[in-house]
């Protein structure tokens, strides 16, 4: 851990432990928060919609992105200050721009699915690798297939991990790069043999009758979905970062108590902010597939003492 990042983490943790539930009245802190159409974004949207952000003296604006790499490329242009991305874009952000991982929302491996159509021959092969008995596919049924996915993403990582467990590599299939919405539309129109998606697009795929051949859990593909800030903003504004985290982890605590009771509001979020239609059963499934990480869990994740 770099010295500057270690200093930021210490300041954030101390500030969060001292921060009261309600801040004194003052000019709200404006914060551009970058999110994708995913469940962890719902918690920030909810705080804005129902006024919860006012308790933390925040004035947040959501900045929409289809996937992680466009978020990363917008970071040096200062289009946003804090946000949520998958582990793969986070790694690129750290390598290219020295960005900081400031929190973890959950393991998104549960929600990254490799899907096929019901008549796919890939479904005829299961248990090829005995170490991963829940995966479908074999080298013979998968090699040479065309895959639709968003490259340099968590979905791409789970796809590559699934292929690796089958004794294959990316080069053994043809990968077409598409944003998630495009991939869903293209696969529905008949393009490709395999599609790799993350939630809530996975829920859309399941609702269309597509079948899961693997997710991160099936092939041991752990996918941290993380909270991020730029090095410059984090170094200059540790208290603002801490305030955002206080708000977010309080929202996580609320979500873990209410669980599927939030399904109707989550459905509204998807329709109004993400432009997606998802039925109530799928909304509830999406919520249940997101075991969110609260502050206690984050302190465990960030403990580098061992």
Structure, described:
This protein has 306 residues and is an alpha/beta fold. The protein has helices at residues 3-18, 39-49, 68-74, 87-97, 139-142, 154-165, 180-188, 201-207, 231-236, 238-258, 263-274, 280-288, 295-301; strands at 29-35, 58-64, 82-86, 100-107, 112-116, 146-149, 174-177, 194-198, 211-215, 224-229. The strands form 2 sheets. Strands 2-1-3-10-4 form a 5-stranded mixed sheet, sandwiched between helices. Strands 7-6-8-5-9 form a 5-stranded mixed sheet, sandwiched between helices. α2 links the parallel β1 and β2 (58-64). α2 (39-49) crosses α11 and α11 packs across α12 (280-288). The longest helix has 21 residues, at 238-258. The two termini are 13 Å apart.
Distance between the termini: 13 Å
Query: Can you give the mean pLDDT?
Result: 94
The fraction of residues in strands falls at 15-25%
Low-pLDDT stretches are none
Number of distinct beta strands: 10
Helix content: 40-55%
Q: In terms of structural class, how would the helical and strand content be classed?
A: alpha/beta
Q: How would the global form be characterised?
A: globular
Output the helix-strand order.
HEHEHEHEEHEHEHEHEEHHHHH
Profile the largest sheet: 5 strands, mixed
Secondary structure elements and pairings:
Layout: H1 3-18, E1 29-35, H2 39-49, E2 58-64, H3 68-74, E3 82-86, H4 87-97, E4 100-107, E5 112-116, H5 139-142, E6 146-149, H6 154-165, E7 174-177, H7 180-188, E8 194-198, H8 201-207, E9 211-215, E10 224-229, H9 231-236, H10 238-258, H11 263-274, H12 280-288, H13 295-301
Parallel strand pairs: 1-2, 1-3, 6-7, 6-8
Antiparallel strand pairs: 3-10, 4-10, 5-8, 5-9
């Amino acid at each position: 851990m770099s010295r500057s990042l270690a200093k930021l983490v210490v300041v954030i943790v101390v500030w969060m432990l001292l921060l009261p539930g309600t801040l004194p009245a003052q000019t709200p802190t404006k914060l551009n928060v970058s999110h994708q159409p995913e469940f962890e974004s719902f918690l920030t949207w909810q705080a804005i919609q129902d006024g919860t952000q006012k308790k933390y003296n925040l004035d947040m604006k959501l900045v929409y992105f289809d996937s992680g790499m466009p978020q990363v490329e917008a970071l040096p242009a200062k289009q946003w200050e804090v946000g949520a991305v998958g582990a793969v874009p986070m790694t690129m952000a750290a390598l290219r721009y020295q960005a900081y991982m400031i929190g973890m929302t959950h393991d998104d491996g549960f929600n990254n699915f490799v899907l096929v159509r019901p008549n796919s021959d890939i479904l005829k092969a299961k248990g090829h690798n005995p170490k991963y008995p829940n995966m479908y596919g074999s080298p013979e049924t998968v090699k040479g297939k065309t895959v639709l996915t968003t490259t340099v993403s968590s979905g791409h990582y789970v796809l590559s991990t699934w292929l690796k467990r089958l004794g294959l590599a990316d080069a053994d299939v043809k990968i077409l790069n598409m944003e998630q919405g495009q991939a869903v539309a293209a696969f529905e129109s008949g393009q490709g043999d395999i599609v790799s998606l993350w939630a809530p697009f996975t829920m859309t795929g399941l609702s269309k009758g597509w079948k899961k051949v693997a997710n991160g859990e099936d092939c041991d593909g752990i996918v941290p979905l993380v909270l991020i800030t730029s090095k410059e903003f984090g170094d200059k504004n540790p208290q603002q970062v801490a305030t955002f985290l206080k708000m977010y982890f309080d929202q996580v605590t609320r979500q873990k108590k209410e669980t599927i009771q939030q399904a109707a509001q989550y459905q509204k979020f998807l329709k109004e902010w993400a432009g997606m239609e998802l039925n109530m059963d799928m909304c509830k499934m999406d919520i249940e597939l997101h075991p969110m990480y609260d502050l206690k869990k984050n302190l465990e994740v960030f403990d580098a003492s061992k």
